Amino acid sequence: MPAHVEVVRELELGEPSQDLLDWAKEHINEDPDTKCQLIDELREMIYSRGECTPVRTDDAFLLRFLRSRKFGVESAYKLFINYHEFREENLNFHEGVGIDLLDKILEYDLIRVLPYKDQKGRNIIVYKWGKWVPSAITIDEFLAASKLIGELGALEARNQIVGAVVILDFNNFTVQQALYLTPSVARKILQIAATSMPIRLEALHVVHNSWAFEIIFNIFKPFLHEKMIERVFFHGSDMESLHKHVDPKHLPVTYRGSQPEYDCKEWLEGVKKNETVAKEISLLGYKTS
Prior knowledge:
By secondary structure, the protein is of the alpha/beta class. Helices cover 47% and strands 11% of the residues. A hairpin with a 5-residue loop joins strand 1 and strand 2 (123-128).
């Protein structure tokens, strides 16, 4: 193993370290002197405005939304409403859905949660769109799995604070696959990635983007706001370009990095056995058995 890259094949569900809290105070305005007050303000806003029936309003849940929006209460409230509207519009993304859906996704190697962080301590998630077989995994299953992984990631305090990096790999992506990515699907993907989940997407790196990818990117463009566009980077097959953003010590050999190829089986087994995870996702309407 390369030095200084810690491999952790499980969710980190403990309290954040003091160093991480210090970083949060400086970069996302998380002040221990005002945090509880802002959580209470957000909760009061939710109940007084009555724009949704909240699935949860406990402190830990509301904190995810505040961290996602750097403790701007109004912005966190808007995200909270977006989250609930998305849930109501896509009940099939959680009703009757459980962790076992990820078994199917991993079988086709569509999504990988890498067992190490990047040089800034952020999670790295890889989506391999070229491996998607629509006849075996529907687009709704793909999106439901993406949302579930987002919910799991939101359980980690570190992820809430420093955010995540996503690599979209379009190697071998075809026009036939692109035809499934309609404007409606594009909107749902961006809702999961940016506007309707309590997660911080810090950067989106697109690799092996071919002319087939250009077809779907033109569909996505109308839904991309300026801040999102600033976080999207296109690298094609130039891995040195990717390395300018993610140190190769924190990337697998597929992307000319130093790390071996890890599958997510051990990570997933740990998720399945974790009682805290089971309780958390059951509160959000997922099945646990």
